[in-house]
Amino acid sequence: MRTPSTPIHLPPLRDYIAGQFSEPTERLGVWLENPNTGEPIAEQRATAPSGLELALQTAWETHQSGLWADMPIGERVEMLARLSAELEKRQERIAQLDALNTGVTLRLTSMLNLIVTGAWHLANAQLQSGWTHTVMPGPNNNPVQIYRKPWGPALLLVAWNAPSAFMAHKGSSALAAGCPTILKPTEWAPYGCDIFAEAAAAAGLPPGVFQIVHGGPEVGAKLVADPRIKAVSFTGGLAGGRAIAAACAHNFKPAQLEMGGNNPVLVFPDADLDDAAAGIVSLMITLNGQWCRALGRLIVPAAKKADLLERVLDRLAQVKIGDSLDMSSDMGPMIHSHHLAKLQGQLKKLVAAGGTLHSRTPLPDLSGHFLAPTLVTGVPSAQAQDEIFGPIGTVHPYESEAEMLALANGTPYGLEAYIFARDEEKAHQIGAKIQAGEIKINGPSIMSLGIMTPRPAWGLSGLREEGTAETFQFFCNTRVVGVEGPLQF
User: Fold this and answer.
1) What letter does residue 331 receive in the DSSP assignment?
2) What is the pLDDT of residues 361-389, one digit of tens each?
3) What is the pLDDT at residue 487?
C-alpha cells in the first residue's frame, strides 16, 4: 500500500473576523478523513457564538458606514484586482488543499483555479459596465435616476465538491456589488476557502468587508436567520436549500439557491455512439461524479442500449482511479467514508428495485474511499427520481420520441440535460422542451455554454439564476429617484 503521491498537511483552521485571524474553538466531534487513505486528519470545528456575533455586527457596521458600498467604483475594482492577484500567488496551495480535502483530482482542482482567480475580473467588468446607475426620462422631461444598490451584508454558503470555485464566483459578485460578505465554508472541505481570507488581508481589504466563520448546519442556520444578513447565496443539497428558503421567507430575504439535479443524458437514434460514450464517461468521473450537473439518468434507444452500454464500459475500463494528489489520476475517491457508505446504500436500493449493476473500472490498491463508476439497468423511472451525487447513473431505454421526452422530464429536478445527436437542429427542437436550466448538445464540459450565459434552475434544482451577470445582480436591489413635478388639475 503506497502513501499519497504528494504529502500535504492541513493547516490549522482559521476564522477571519473584523480583520483578525483566530482558531475556531467549538469542537464538533466529527473527523475529516484523508479520502485517499481513510485516515482521520482533522476534527471539524465551529466558530464560537461570540465570534459569530462579532462577525455579524462588524459586517453590519461596515455596511452602515458606507465604507465599502459607497467606495468609488475605481477603488473597489482596484482592491478586488489585488485580491485576485494575491489568490494567483496561492493557487497551487488552494488546488492541493481542495484535492486532499475533497478527493477531487489535483488535475481538476488546478484547472478550477481559472475560476478562483478569474471570477474577480468578470465581477469587476460587471461593476464597471454602468448597470448599477442608469438614467431614464421621467415626467416633464425630468431625469429619473435608477440605482442598483447592494442589499447589505451577504452570506455565502458553499458546497464541498468545488468549494474554492464556488467561493470565487459568489464572493467576487457579492464584493463587487458592494456587500460586506461573510463566508461559511462547508464543514467537510473548508481549508481551500480559508486561503481567501489570507489573500484578502494581503490585498488590503478593509476589516469587515470580507470575513470567514466555520461550522455546520447550526452555524449556517444562525447566520441565515439573523436580520443583519440581507442576502443569502447557497449551493448544496435539497434539505439545506429548503431550510434556507423557509428561514429567508420570514423577512422576505432574497435567497439564491442551487440544489442539484438528476440530470438526463438523451442519446438520439442518430447519435455517434462513440462520442456519446465518451461524454457519458466524462460526466461520470468529473469531480468523481460528485457534482450537481453529473449524469443522473441515461436515456437511450432500446435498440442501441446494449451497444452503447458496452462502449461506455470499455471506456470506463481505461479510467485510472487513484490518489487525488497524483496528477495522472483520472478520478479520485469519494470525499468521506460517510458519503461512500451512503452511495453504497443507494446502489443496494437500486438493486432491490430490480437493477443490475454494470462496472468495469479497476480500483487502486489503496485503503481510501474509492467507488467504481457504475451504470444500473432495469430500474423503473419511478424508482430513479432522486439525485445520487456520485458516479452512478440509471439507464432507461425508450421506443419513441414522446417516451424519450417523458423520461427526460420525469423527475422534479431541472438543472442540466445533455443531448447527443448528429441532427443538431432536431436536438435544439427537443432541447427547448426539456425542463432544465441548461441543455448541452454534443458536449459534457464542466463549464457553462458561455461565460455570459445564465445558469438557471427549474423545479427542485434551485431558485434564482446564477451566472456572471445574474449572480452580481442578485446582490443588488433597485432604487429609483426622480422629480415628478406639480400635479395638474
Assistant:
1) B
2) 999 999 999 999 999 999 999 999 999 99
3) 67
427 phi and psi, to 5 degrees? -60, -40
Is residue 322 within 8 Å of residue 290, measured between CB atoms?
A: no
Residues in the chain: 489
- Cα 375 to Cα 388: distance, rounded to the nearest angstrom: 12
Cell numbers given for 149: 444598490
Q: What is the pLDDT of residue 485?
A: 76
User: What is the spatial distance between Cα 309 and Cα 359, in angstroms, rounded to a whole number?
Assistant: 10
C-alpha cell at 226: 439573523
Q: In 3-state terms, what secondary structure has residue 130?
A: coil
* Segments in the chain below pLDDT 50: 1-6
Q: Cα dihedral sign for 47, 50, 53, 59?
A: negative
Quote the pTM value: 0.95
Cell numbers for 22, please give them.
Answer: 483566530
Residue 291 to residues 94, 159, 305, 369, 387, Cα–Cα distance (Å): 19, 10, 25, 17, 10
Shortest CA distance to 101 belongs to which of 34, 30, 15, 13? 34
Cell of 63: 455596511
CA-to-CA distance for 283 and 293, rounded, in angstroms? Answer: 8
Q: Which three cell numbers stand for residue 277?
A: 460514450
